[in-house]
Amino acid sequence: MWPETAVAIAFILLLAVVGRWLVQVAIRRMVRMTTDRARQHLEKLGRPGQILASATGMQSERQAQRAATMGSVVGSAATFVIATIALLTVLSHVGIDLAPVLASAGVGGVALAFGAQSLVKDVLSGIFLTVEDQYGVGDVITVNEVTGTVEHVGLRVTSVRDANGMLWYLRNGEITKVGNVSQGWSIATVDLPIHPAEDAGRAIELLERVATDFAADEDHAADLIDPPEVLGVETITGTAMTLRMTAKCLANQQWGVQRELRERAKHALDAAGVRGAVSGWGSGSTTA
């Protein structure tokens, strides 16, 4: 009796191992096919495809990350199911009555569920964060009063490094509100204070030339969605008249565009003899 039982148990365990291996191979293949198909599609679209990918969060890197995370979730769930079925089948072959075991497991499961509520909440929140693509590695986000760059997105914890280099570990279940400046597109905003007695029309013409030259520069055109605009006079005080320029650009590129626009605008105004405000040059940025 026992030799036959031992052979049956060994066969069940072998089936479980082979089944898990086949599931993992299938998941990895599906993840690879999904990411390869998305990358090839975007490559065919060329430059418009890159802008579309950035604006919709469909970059190949993000696709790969989301697919890998979901593959990990599905793989873990499949492993749990296969292991549970194999264990119950082995117990039945050994001759153990499964009814009391299942009843005890039900009571224990209820107790465990009460004790692991926060863990389950964190994992479920992590799954939804990944599926909905609220943020990904490399995004600049503000979450729970922490602003920084996402370094890792896990099922339970998200790690964010702030501007001071501090690494924050945030439980996904505690994340209730997220601000992401890296999705879709961004606005680079440059404010240029000049002397209030200067000719605003002349200064605006100079800035419009700067905007035209900037849009024609191949080194920076790739970061732009729309050419820079000169909005005109933003504010007037007793010490400064502030002119504003904006540029709609790819996500996460607003800071570089802003710095270059500011430098070119200042050179143009200085070369034309436009006096700066007493308070100096300033800038700001907004995103959308």
Describe the structure in your own words.
- The protein is α+β, with helices and mostly antiparallel strands and 288 residues long.
- The protein has three domains: 2-115, Helix Hairpins; 135-180, SH3 type barrels, CATH 2.30.30.60; 185-287, Alpha-Beta Plaits (2-Layer Sandwich), CATH 3.30.70.
- It is 56% helix and 19% strand.
- It contains seven helices and nine strands.
- It has helices at residues 2-56, 60-94, 98-115, 117-131, 200-216, 218-221, 254-271; strands spanning 140-143, 146-153, 157-162, 167-171, 178-180, 185-194, 229-236, 241-250, 286-287.
- The strands form two sheets. It has a five-stranded antiparallel sheet with strand order 4-3-2-1-5.
- A hairpin with a 2-residue loop joins strand 1 and strand 2.
- Helix 1 runs antiparallel to helix 2.
- The protein is elongated, with a radius of gyration of 29 Å.
- The termini are far apart.
- Residues 280-288 have low confidence and may be disordered.
Q: Give me the count of strands.
A: 9
CATH class of the largest domain: Mainly Alpha
The outline comes out as elongated
Largest sheet: 5 strands, antiparallel
* Strand residue content: 15-25%
> Low-confidence parts lasting 5 or more residues at pLDDT below 50?
280-288
Total domain count = 3
The chain-level structural class is alpha+beta
Q: What is the helical fraction, as a range of percent?
A: 55-70%
The CATH topology of the largest domain = Helix Hairpins
What's the order of the H and E elements?
Answer: HHHHEEEEEEHHEEHE
What do the pLDDT scores average to?
Answer: 80
Radius of gyration: 29 Å
Please give the alpha-carbon distance between the first and last residues. Answer: 71 Å
Tally of helical runs: 7
Strands ordered across the widest β-sheet: 4-3-2-1-5
Name of the CATH architecture of the largest domain: Orthogonal Bundle
